[in-house]
Structure formats: C-alpha cells, structure tokens
Amino acid sequence: MPKKKNKTKETRVVQMGRVYVTATFNNTLITVTDGEGKVLFTMSSGMFGFKGTRKATPYAATITIENALKRAIDEYKLKTADVYLKGIGPGRDAALRVLKSLDLDINQLVDITPIPHNGVRPPKVRRT
What pLDDT, on a 0 to 100 scale, did the predictor assign at position 53? Predict the structure, then answer.
C-alpha cells in the first residue's frame, strides 16, 4: 500500500489587495480580494454569532471588519488596500472607524453605492 503524501497548504502573499464592504440594513458583508480581483475570503456578521436584527448593528460590523482585516494581514501579509464601500447601512461608519485604527495603508477609499439617475417609470395616466 503506497504512503499518502501530506499536502501542505501554500499561503499566498498578497502585498496589495482590495477590501469590499457592503453595508445593508440587515447585514454587513466583507470581501477581501487580491490586486486582480480574485477573492481570498469573505465574511459576514452572521459568521460571528450575530442573528436576526443584531447583525445590522454597528457593533456587529465592527467585529466582522476587524476580524476580516486581521485575518488578511496575518494570513496573506496584506500591507496596502483599496477600500470600496457600498450601501447605506449602519456598518458603513463602523467600517471606516476600524480601517482608521488598523495598521493597513489605504490607497483609495471609493463609494460604489448604486444611485438611480432617472428613477422608476411613472404610472400610466388614469382614464376617467
């Protein structure tokens, strides 16, 4: 019987990456990618034991973003990042506070919240 080889996971070193923060009214999602946009990992408030309406609190967003960025710095040796904020939830301001406190160089901070330019189509004129 042949011996099984132990596969060791090779950790990738990513100097420059992107951090996408989606702050909705129900949850806060964080996706960390490398410079090309390939996803390294994603986290949400629900992954840290927050359920229901507690997921939408700024505290839950703080815990989630802090753990995600610490993991990116420890595991992938992330040094600099472009940060993309999307949404108008309560986790948005909490994300900015956490980003300011950690030792991560931020190249750019971009707001990619979708904004309608024309709105919805108006209703048909009422017939009498």
Answer: 93
Cβ-proximal residues to 17 (8 Å cutoff; 6+ apart), any chain: 32, 33, 34, 35, 40, 72, 76, 78, 80, 81, 82
pLDDT digits (tens, 9 = 90+) for 98-128: 999 998 999 999 999 999 899 899 999 999 8
Q: Tell me, what's the pLDDT at 1? A: 65
Q: How much is the mean pLDDT over the chain?
A: 92
pLDDT digits (tens, 9 = 90+) for 42-53: 999 999 999 999
Residue 77 · residue 15 · CB < 8 Å = yes
Q: Which of these CATH numbers, 3.30.980.10, 3.40.50.2300, 3.30.420.80, 3.40.47.10, describes 20-103?
A: 3.30.420.80
What pLDDT does residue 116 have? 87
**Contact call for residues 45 and 27 (beta carbons, < 8 A):** yes
Residues 6+ apart with CB under 8 A from 43: 29, 30, 64, 67, 68, 71
Q: Where are the domains of the chain?
A: 20-103
